[in-house]
Amino acid sequence: MGIDVRPATREDTDGIQHVAEQAWHSAHAPIIGTETTDEFLERYYDAATFRSLVEDDESLLGVAVGDGKTGNEKTEADVVGFVGASPTDGDSETFDLGRIYVLPGRWREGIGGRLLSHAERMVAERDGERIRLGVMAENERAIEFYESAGYHRDEKFYDERIDTSGYVYVKEL
C-alpha cells in the first residue's frame, strides 16, 4: 500500500469531499443521525469550502493519496484521507485542527496517524506551539486515536449545530 501525504491542490477537492461524506456517515451519523449529518455536510463540507481552504494561505490542508483500493477493486491513485488546520483567531501560536478524515474502508491502516503527523509538522514549521481540536464525546474511536497521539482532554463543550457534546483536546508541540 503506497500512501503519499502532501499539501492539497484544487484537483483534490472532489476526493476530499468524498472522503468527508463517507467518514462523516460512518463515524458521526450513528451519534447524531443521518439527517443532521447530511445537513452538516451540505452546509460545511461542500466543494467550494474545500477549494477556498486550498487557496487560503493561512490554512493547512493536506491529503493522503493512495492506491484507492476498496475491497477487491483497485483504481488509480485517489484521495483516501485529508487533514485541515488553521490558526486560532487571535492566537498565532495555536492552530485548530478542524478536519481529519480517512475513508472508512482504510481505517486502522495508519493513514490517520500519518495525516496527523503531517499537520503537526506543518504547524511547527509555521511556529505554532500547540494544536487544539474538538471531538464528539461519544466518538470513542477518535478519542482513543487522539489520546494515543499525545493529545490531552482540556475541556467539554456543547455543539448546537449538531446537538451533541464533545471534548476539546490539546497537544503542545
The strand line-up of the biggest sheet is 1-2-3-4-5-7-6
Order of helices and strands: EHHHHEEEHEHEE
Number of strands: 7
User: How far apart, in Å, are the first and last alpha carbons?
Assistant: 29 Å
Enumerate how many helices there are, as a single number: 6
Instruction: Pick out the low-confidence regions.
Output: 71-76
- Provide the CATH top-level class: Alpha Beta
* Name of the CATH architecture: 3-Layer(aba) Sandwich
SS-based class: alpha+beta
Give the overall shape: globular
CATH superfamily: Gcn5-related N-acetyltransferase (GNAT)
| CATH fold name | Aminopeptidase
Rg calc = 15 Å
Helical content class: 25-40%
Overall pLDDT confidence: 92
List the domain count as a whole number.
1
Can you describe what's shown?
This protein is globular. It has a single domain, classed as 3-Layer(aba) Sandwich (Aminopeptidase), CATH 3.40.630.30. It is built from six helices and seven strands, in the order βααααβββαβαββ. Residues 71-76 have low confidence and may be disordered. The chain has 173 residues and is an alpha+beta fold. Helices cover 36% and strands 34% of the residues. The protein has a seven-stranded mixed beta sheet with strand order 1-2-3-4-5-7-6.
Topology:
Elements (H helix, E strand, L loop, with lengths): L3 E4 L5 H15 L1 H4 L1 H11 L2 H9 L4 E7 L11 E11 L2 E12 L8 H15 L4 E7 L3 H9 L3 E8 L4 E9 L1
Parallel strand pairs: 4-5
Antiparallel strand pairs: 1-2, 2-3, 3-4, 5-7, 6-7
Helix pairs in contact: 1-3, 1-4
